[in-house]
From TrEMBL:
Forms serotonin (5-hydroxytryptamine/5-HT3)-activated cation-selective channel complexes, which when activated cause fast, depolarizing responses in neurons. It catalyses: Ca(2+)(in) = Ca(2+)(out); K(+)(in) = K(+)(out); Na(+)(in) = Na(+)(out). GO terms for cellular component: postsynaptic membrane. PROSITE patterns: NEUROTR_ION_CHANNEL (PS00236). One of its GO terms (molecular function) is extracellular ligand-gated monoatomic ion channel activity. It comes from the Eukaryota. This is 5-hydroxytryptamine receptor 3A-like. Residues 70-264 form the Neurotransmitter-gated ion-channel ligand-binding domain. The keyword Transmembrane applies. Coiled coil: none annotated. Belongs to the ligand-gated ion channel (TC 1.A.9) family. The chain crosses the membrane at residues 18-39, 265-289, 301-318, 330-350, 463-484. Keywords: Cell membrane, Disulfide bond, Glycoprotein, Ion channel, Ion transport, Ligand-gated ion channel, Membrane, Postsynaptic cell membrane, Receptor, Signal, Synapse, Transmembrane, Transmembrane helix, Transport.
Length: 486
């Protein structure tokens, strides 16, 4: 009877011990799960990864193995905390301008871009190893996704399979790209135009709170660019760091480069402007041909035909613009209009000179206005040739004049003759005035009426030539000032 209580107490003690061990096992399990949770968090907390290796061959292999261990994921941004912002420093240089299409409003260029960022948990002791940089496969490392917003065609890249790692954790990645970018071009001052094309770099994947783009100095970018002889000359490069908003909640960091290009105008000056000026000069010197000659009109018509052929040949060299016409097109149209006006003036002068016999006599007011006033103003003296009036003396009167006096005239008779002579002088003056009037009437009647029209044509031709020359000089100087005006 006494053994039964002892048995119950033993069972109770065994059960209590079992429960204690079970509770201990549960506590150990919970602690192990918590430690497993803290392992990756502790890995995110490390700030650097120093590789304790030497510089032997086996050490180099070990160093690469430890780098692979440090870069434990090539699919995640290399940041200590997921909320950290990764700063990527962007550099660009233009290796050459391959082409500028004004009609399509695009620019094709070959550029070299560099991307630099820092991996915070990667470094090694460069003093022990003796080198600062190593090459690493680009496919084994996370790379930022950077695109060009103005790109209009399929992007063509020359892949460089390796990037450069620095002992401080810095990454240097180089890309070679052939870019066809849209560019809003202003061809008003062609071929003395300056174009400002922009290239905007940003990421469509990582927002501003994940990736921030910085730029190298513009002077550094300009010095690295190749100033090749491709018809364009670099003037300056500017950079602008900003944010790009695609939606109301998503913003992306961006870097915008403004490339200022100036066209080399020597080719267009030699092929377009100089021949046009020569043809205009020939049209100007055609005024020295005789105005009554029909060859002047034929020469001007041939000149206009040659200028039209010249415009057709050079049409492919001129850029198109839907917004406004280029100044060189205005220059060519203006030169052609001057040639047409010169031809019309030549036709008018030839018609006035050759068909003057069919016109009426020149009105007196027109005679005074052109032959008297305008002729003197233009330093011309178009005096019509006087009509030749032949006077035949009476042979009997000549004989009487040669006859000597028959006798000496008395004094009283002389006094009488003096009185009569005074009256005769007055009468002779009246006769002289009448004879002069008759002479002028005879000259007007005998002179051909078409001679006045020819003189009027000469004066008008000289006046129109000087007006034409003045208008050409003023117009060409105005166009030249507009071309060279900044």
């Amino acid at each position: 009877m006494d053994t039964q209580p002892h048995t119950d107490m033993a069972q109770q003690r065994g059960f209590t011990l079992f429960m204690r061990w079970l509770l201990l096992l549960l506590i150990i399990s919970e602690v192990s799960d918590f430690l497993i949770f803290l392992v990756p968090f502790a890995r995110c907390q490390k700030t650097s990864y120093v590789l304790p290796v030497d510089c032997t061959f086996n050490g180099t292999q070990a160093m690469y193995a430890q780098i692979n261990n440090a870069l434990w994921s090539n699919e995640m941004r290399p940041v200590t905390y997921p909320s950290d912002v990764l700063t990527v420093k962007l550099g660009m240089s233009v290796a050459g301008i391959l082409g500028v299409d004004e009609k399509q409003q695009v620019m094709t260029a070959f550029i070299i871009t560099t991307l630099d960022w820092t991996v915070p948990f990667l470094s090694w002791n460069n003093t022990e190893c003796g080198f600062d940089n190593i090459s690493y496969p680009a496919s084994e490392l996370w790379l930022p996704s950077i695109q060009i917003a103005e790109h209009m065609d399929q992007e063509t890249n020359i892949d460089i399979p390796y990037l450069q790692l620095n002992y401080t954790g810095g990454v240097h990645f180089v890309q070679l790209k052939r870019v066809t970018a849209s560019c809003q071009m202003d061809i008003y001052k062609f071929p003395f135009d300056v174009q400002n094309c922009s290239l905007t770099f940003h990421s469509y994947l990582h927002e501003e709170n994940e990736l921030k783009l910085m730029s190298k100095p513009a002077a550094f970018i300009f010095d690295l660019s190749v100033h090749s002889d491709s018809g364009w000359r670099f003037v300056s490069v500017t950079e602008l760091i900003s944010t790009t908003t695609f939606t109301s909640k998503r913003t992306f960091s961006s870097v915008k480069y403004g490339i200022l290009l100036k066209r080399e105008a020597s080719l267009y000056v030699v092929n377009l402007l100089v021949p046009s000026c020569f043809l205009s000069l020939l049209d100007l010197f055609s005024f020295f041909l005789p105005p009554e000659n029909v060859d002047r009109s034929a020469f001007k018509m041939t000149l206009i035909l040659g200028y039209t052929v010249f415009l057709l040949i050079t049409n492919d060299l001129l850029p198109d613009s839907a917004s406004h016409a280029a100044l060189i097109n205005v220059f060519f149209s203006f030169s052609l209009a001057l040639m047409v006006a010169s031809l019309l003036e030549a036709m008018f002068i030839v018609n006035l000179s050759n068909n003057s016999k069919h016109y009426h006599r020149v009105p007196r007011w027109l005679h005074i206005l052109i032959l008297d006033f305008l002729a003197r103003l233009l330093c011309m003296s178009p005096k019509p040739p006087a009509a030749r009036v032949t006077v035949t003396l009476n042979p009997h009167a000549e004989g009487r004049l040669d006859m000597p006096g028959e006798a000496t005239i008395p004094a009283e008779t002389r006094e009488m003759e003096m009185i009569e002579g005074v009256a005769m002088v007055d009468e002779l003056k009246k006769v002289a005035r009448d004879v002069l009037t008759i002479r002028l009437r005879l000259e007007e009647h005998l002179s051909p009426k078409e001679n006045d029209w020819k003189l009027i044509a000469d004066v008008i031709d000289r006046l129109l030539f000087r007006l034409y020359l003045l208008f050409v000089i003023v117009s060409y100087i105005t166009i030249l000032v507009l071309w060279l005006k900044h």
